Amino acid sequence: MSAAATKIIQPLPLNSTTTNRSPHKALFNPLKATPISSFPASTRKLRLTKPNSPHARRRSTSIFAVSDVVQEKKPTSNTFFPNLLITKEEGLELYEDMILGRSFEDMCAQMYYRGKMFGFVHLYNGQEAVSAGFIKLLKNEDCVVSTYRDHVHALSKGVPARAVMSELFGKTTGCCRGQGGSMHMFSKEHNVLGGFAFIGEGIPVATGAAFTSKYRREVLKEGDCDHVTLAFFGDGTCNNGQFFECLNMAALWKLPIVFVVENNLWAIGMSHLRATSDPEIWKKGPAFGIPGVHVDGMDVLKVREVAKEAITRARRGEGPTLVECETYRFRGHSLADPDELRDASEKAHYAARDPITALKKYMVENNLASEAELKVIEKKIDEVVEEAVEFADSSPLPGRSQLLENVFADPRGFGIGPDGKYRCEDPKFTEGTAHV
Amino acid sequence: MWGIIRQKVGAGGFPVPILEQSLPRLRPAVSAWRRYSSAAKEMTVRDALNSALDEEMSADPKVFLMGEEVGEYQGAYKISKGLLEKYGPDRVLDTPITEAGFAGIGVGAAYYGLRPIVEFMTFNFSMQAIDHIINSAAKSNYMSAGQINVPIVFRGPNGAAAGVGAQHSQCYAAWFGACPGLKVLAPYSSEDARGLLKAAIRDPDPVVFLENELLYGESFPISAEALDSSFCLPIGKAKIEREGKDVTITAFSKMVGYALKAAEILAKEGISAERFVTKQVINLRSIRPLDTATINASVRKTNRLVTVEEGFPQHGVGAEICTSVIEESFIYLDAPVERIAGADVPMPYAANLERMAVPQVEDIVCAVKRACYRSVPMTATA
């Protein structure tokens, strides 16, 4: 059904238009644009959806996703790749990460229905391939910015399961001491910059972190600073103004960022096809001069290959990439969502493409690991999650004084003087002059 | 002599020589029309802000400025004049017209270690970015339990200018002042502008810095201390601009000037009326944290309060001050608190209507008289 050509659309090379007006050599010169380098990924691995495909225009009764790929590609066969894509260690790492994500989210559901967790909880079941595929390629200093569906992003990045579980229980031992909650996972140590409830809010923040990385390399002369930022967001966000504003600025300033769209086709109850004039999100990248890639987000190996290229591209300073991962969430939008609008056959279709089962099958068939080894991992993760729940359960609630803490980093206004007292308590300050 | 050199250099478009930090001497007068006076130096608010930005950018390479027209246009109101030439386009960034996008980029950069200054051409445009100011900047230190602080400054002109119409004239002090996690500053004089902007840039929390377009060109005397490159003012402390003992007037930004003028008028009238009405004018400087201690101490001394602001009256800064005084110093009040604010309408365009929509000096004088004469028998007045 889909065209035999499987190239991605490259943005048209932009000509160097006007000369540099500023007398200084500009590092961020918006006037001079360089042609985008060709996307180094092997074109065989990437899919192109046929534009104006009748499937793409079907309304919400459509069973299949935007991409035609779904129909023809078997989920687990890797006949295109005669050589294995991963080593055993990498495979086990990916498997463990996805199992952790799945078990953790399942446990969250259990705990929610038992009343231990409350408020808004958005689970990631089914989308683990995207998180594992991308985040496991990052260094600790690289940043991840996410939305409210952020538990698994935090876990993949390295935040301990017990810290995340305590945070969800609202206990003081949580990664944000219980003050953030499900939707606001922050970890400075692991460079998880949130956790945002507003869709589209994380995209400019991620672009800013990428900006910092570039600034540090070029202005502060930290030559080895090649930190990459990943921004995760959904299909609904791709209609939001901030998304486009940041595609523009990231391309303009060639920031080291990868925009990862987790297109799970539904924004609460709004089907992506009903909300979007052109549902093929990866096509929006080339409009700004950014390569756009579409990948099967239920296959962790494919995601990982694309991620490798995109992250390497960013690290080399070649600028941003827009990656659309076609994926699916097995549960509702949140635990409060009755999930009545989605077709049972659609759910069944994607359930058959469960990324965890797919990876398991791949590893066993290619003799990377035995069933027994994988079972050992599953058991280990079960214990980790159980321990996390016990830890969270037994942790204390925040104390009363914690209510007013941490509103400001410097609560008294301006700084502490050399004598250790707050400057604004110096009596001379009311006279309107002060020495620092 | 310095003034003349500066004028020439400024006109020629060369990089403007900024204060050398090695010289603790006085900075020359800036306005081309001032005589070079050896007594008090004067400085416009615009130059005060420019010098503060310059000094902070040169002191810390992590500080950078971004906004619309801050670079090649030298600043929409010329506040960032000369900075592009001095620091280059990596540190003075001209952004596309995308407030939400670039405010968010500033916040993200602050999360990850830089110290951005985001300029809004006017604070009316900050409404396009208000999600980032409040949700990702103000609330982050709290949501992350202190892990991620946001050392960002959002600055720009606030409030009414002259004849710019409803969508360019709103005062945002009350809106931003209501949010925990933000520090909101409103300078009046050049000394305020310099000291508070430097404090804001050095502060580890998000600061909303509300300037005023009509004050940019006004000159104020400035002390040698204030010209020093390490000069800072504390955030959260109000200044008593003028001592008095009969009524307390609180104001911020442009209204401080009006309040001082009203004080002059009343002082003259008071002399002729046998009753010397002196007003204690408090320049709030900091809307959040509000210096309720200074305000209450003043009210306990004078027993009367008039609050002045330019913004809309409902839920305004004056409403907050009045209530806080009632809560803390009720028994000290001799008269009901008076609240002067802008008219409760979107700003009209016609010049006479605009004048009616913003508090004028006469309004302040009337309010003070109302507050003072309540407890004074009518026969005592002239």
From TrEMBL, chain A:
GO terms for molecular function: pyruvate dehydrogenase (acetyl-transferring) activity. Pfam families: E1_dh. SUPFAM superfamilies: Thiamin diphosphate-binding fold (THDP-binding) (SSF52518). It catalyses: N(6)-[(R)-lipoyl]-L-lysyl-[protein] + pyruvate + H(+) = N(6)-[(R)-S(8)-acetyldihydrolipoyl]-L-lysyl-[protein] + CO2. One of its GO terms (biological process) is pyruvate decarboxylation to acetyl-CoA. InterPro entries: DH_E1, PDH_E1_Alpha_Subunit, Pyrv_DH_E1_asu_subgrp-y, THDP-binding. Its cofactor is thiamine diphosphate. Tetramer of 2 alpha and 2 beta subunits. NCBIfam families: PDH_E1_alph_y (TIGR03182). The pyruvate dehydrogenase complex catalyzes the overall conversion of pyruvate to acetyl-CoA and CO(2). It contains multiple copies of three enzymatic components: pyruvate dehydrogenase (E1), dihydrolipoamide acetyltransferase (E2) and lipoamide dehydrogenase (E3). This is Pyruvate dehydrogenase E1 component subunit alpha.
From TrEMBL, chain B:
InterPro entries: PDHB_mito-type, THDP-binding, Transketo_C/PFOR_II, Transketolase-like_Pyr-bd, Transketolase_C. Its cofactor is thiamine diphosphate. One of its GO terms (cellular component) is mitochondrial matrix. The keyword Oxidoreductase applies. Keywords: Metal-binding, Mitochondrion, Oxidoreductase, Potassium, Pyruvate, Thiamine pyrophosphate, Transit peptide. It is found in: Mitochondrion matrix. GO terms for molecular function: metal ion binding; pyruvate dehydrogenase (acetyl-transferring) activity. Transmembrane segments: none annotated. Its EC number is 1.2.4.1. GO terms for biological process: pyruvate decarboxylation to acetyl-CoA. The keyword Metal-binding applies. Gene3D superfamilies: 3.40.50.920, 3.40.50.970. It catalyses: N(6)-[(R)-lipoyl]-L-lysyl-[protein] + pyruvate + H(+) = N(6)-[(R)-S(8)-acetyldihydrolipoyl]-L-lysyl-[protein] + CO2. Residues 43-218 form the Transketolase-like pyrimidine-binding domain. Tetramer of 2 alpha and 2 beta subunits. The pyruvate dehydrogenase complex catalyzes the overall conversion of pyruvate to acetyl-CoA and CO(2). It contains multiple copies of three enzymatic components: pyruvate dehydrogenase (E1), dihydrolipoamide acetyltransferase (E2) and lipoamide dehydrogenase (E3). The pyruvate dehydrogenase complex catalyzes the overall conversion of pyruvate to acetyl-CoA and CO2. This is Pyruvate dehydrogenase E1 component subunit beta. It comes from Actinidia chinensis var. chinensis. The lineage of its organism: Eukaryota, Viridiplantae, Streptophyta, Embryophyta, Tracheophyta.
